[in-house]
Amino acid sequence: MIYCLFLIYEPVNLEKSLLRLHRFLTSSGTKAKILVINNGEQIHSSSLNNIEFIPGDNRYFEFSGWQAGKQYLEKNYTLQDGDLFCFANDTFDKNHYFSRLTAWLYNLKSKQAAKRQRGFILGRVDSRNTEYKVDKLPLSKWISSYFFVLDYTAFQALVFLNTRLCSAVKEVTDESIYFDQTVVDTPMQEHINSWLRPTGKGWYRAHSSDNDVIRNKSVAILHEKYLSAVLMARNIEFIHVYSGRIGRIVHKFDKRIQRYRLRYRKSSETSGS
What we know:
273 residues; alpha/beta; Spore Coat Polysaccharide Biosynthesis Protein SpsA, Chain A; two-stranded antiparallel ribbon
């Protein structure tokens, strides 16, 4: 069985996204269940089978929502060794292009990993030539949280929320973000500031968001890094879905299509205004 926790907040073409998710989840013949975690205020429904809608928690973006979803799943379903789990947020097919080739890579690599060992997480793995520390746990790579797949061993090890991280942002100004230095080391502080308070390229909403949004986004980034740091400390294998020659080709293809989609979207908005 594969369970998918699909978190939504912004208005999305939900039926299209669910169809794409369902096609990916069932393409290998595996039974699938999709739980849509609603972190927004809109009421949603779907005509598809095996879709369940549950309320989320948007205090810390997808991480508080996924914490609510994980707790719901553990309480209401009988999970077992051999199950797989997919986590996706509503940017997976909006800010990224999730092609059939990418779906094929996820299916192929998850099958290979399940045969090889227990304890893996599969997704886009980002890395830097810098060691960061979040609540004293080191990391130099992390899983990108818009879409990832993991087995039951890794699922049990997931930690989505850390109370020390929730209060780690001490002050946000228009120029900088200030952190509790006992929780967030200097390299991680610089990393987050370069993304959310950029002088050049950064988060696409960095210049249009108020300080409260920047604070919450900072806490969400800390939790994204902490999630990976915890899994690394528990010896979970990280698998980069786009590794290898074929993976790199697929990634380039997806990025090219996404750039085209963004240009088309902007031109449509311009012509419609």
